Amino acid sequence: MKNTLIAPSILAADFANLQKEINMVNKSEADLFHIDIMDGVFVPNISFGMPVLEAIKKHAKKSLDVHLMIVDPDRYISSFKKLGADVLTVHYEACTHLHRTIQAIKAEGMKAGVALNPHTPVALLEDIIKDIDLVCIMSVNPGFGGQSFIEHTYDKVAQLKEMIRRNKANTLIEIDGGVTNKNAKQLAEAGADILVAGSYVFSAKDSIATIADLKAITK
Ligand code: DX5
Ligand code: ZN
């Protein structure tokens, strides 16, 4: 089958030992670092901001997949480019002029991602799917790690896969929230290209082995 990418979510890392956690991801079979930026307005939580991202960038040896859970993300697109983001994902629900925002992210040389909250239908992306490098389907309500996976996600992956095919787009499908060894295989089979996993990876006794296991079961 295909190579499903695994993106450990740093939100679940031990921030007092961040360098150690980053080195663990560097050494593992993980493909990307998933970085959750929350502003306390778009979501009811504040995670971390620019200085922490700068510190992560210093040690990370893999691409940075930055997930902005903030209102009006256009204000910070060039800042996140300077901080080293490779993929910059904004929320559909946070953008009034989504097409313009996507163009601005690409103009900075980053891949443009759009995240959908669980209540947001995939069909709303039909007219711009060809412009989007990555769609992040939220499989929990954004704001916190460690929540349980919403089962309706499988239907959304199938719908999105079909939309991508119909439009001859090259968009990647990412799943974010509640990913474990219980749902990873089914998600990969439904068409997911990238699986984000936070608490499942970082709360494991052996995070490197857990990442290897996720890679193996989604091959
Ligand atoms: C949720 C974040 C997720 C979260 C995933 O708002 O966007 O990336 O860190 O964490 P788990 O895998 O613990 O659900
Ligand atoms: Zn995320």
TrEMBL record:
Keywords associated with the record: Carbohydrate metabolism, Isomerase, Metal-binding
Entry-linked PROSITE patterns: RIBUL_P_3_EPIMER_1, RIBUL_P_3_EPIMER_2
List of residues binding a divalent metal cation: 34, 36, 67, 176
Active-site residues annotated for this sequence: 36, 176
Metal-binding as UniProt keyword: yes
Protein residues bound to substrate: 9, 67, 143-146, 176-178, 198-199
EC number: 5.1.3.1
Catalytic reaction equation(s): D-ribulose 5-phosphate = D-xylulose 5-phosphate
Protein's UniProt keywords contain Metal-binding: yes
GO molecular function per UniProt: D-ribulose-phosphate 3-epimerase activity
Function recorded in the entry: Catalyzes the reversible epimerization of D-ribulose 5-phosphate to D-xylulose 5-phosphate.
Sequence similarity: Belongs to the ribulose-phosphate 3-epimerase family.
UniProt name for this protein: Ribulose-phosphate 3-epimerase
Gene (name only): rpe
